[in-house]
């Protein structure tokens, strides 16, 4: 891995974004998570009278409904934000007419994507500090049973999203579009990934499909380390699954990316 390439990519993107970043877009990306938390707060108090059903407690392992939603909504919006930055890096180069120059540049694609993800991670963390204000405003307290497990879960989520973004970015430049592919991924992750409701609500076949998604195990770790009340030892098996799934997605993405780039060049020239 070339550290100078990754650093130069992250620094270049930071400088470009700092000069011409639409802050209204940043607010727009945080609002969906804030709205999900607000609706959950309204439903919990106005409809549920401050109680949750037994099947939720059995599936989620907690009665802290609002904290569960806050963790899940934040994780999902963070996933979306990271994919929008990382997976669309190559197609953004394609749209700006610089993909050809990037492909012939003496720089590896892996450090380039890693540098872009590093910038995306930093900028997304800054933006999502606003969500902490929203959660505090609703008086939602999020318990943390394993701080180290929570940190490892967050790293696992970033790693799995990066692994997914490598192949997804290749698919975008090969197909020459981004919206259909990215929104399909968002729908699958949102419906099957267990972000804001227990996967026990899903039919058996859907739960098996969810295990194939890269972020499912990482989300389980985040919930387990917070509202789930689990220790680090309890979380280790799911962290192991995160590593295996991320390695699989990353390998497939790196194998597919050169073919996608060749296809993109053929379509362009």
UniProtKB/TrEMBL annotation:
PROSITE patterns: ABC_TM2. Residues 24-260 form the ABC transmembrane type-2 domain. Its main location: membrane. The keyword Cell membrane applies. It is a multi-pass membrane protein. Keywords: Antibiotic resistance, Cell membrane, Membrane, Transmembrane, Transmembrane helix, Transport. It is found in: Cell membrane; Membrane. The keyword Transport applies. InterPro entries: ABC2_TM, ABC2_TM_bact-type, ABC_2_transport, Nod_factor_ABC_transporter. The chain crosses the membrane at residues 21-44, 64-91, 112-142, 148-173, 235-257. Belongs to the ABC-2 integral membrane protein family. Pfam families: ABC2_membrane (PF01061). This is Transport permease protein.
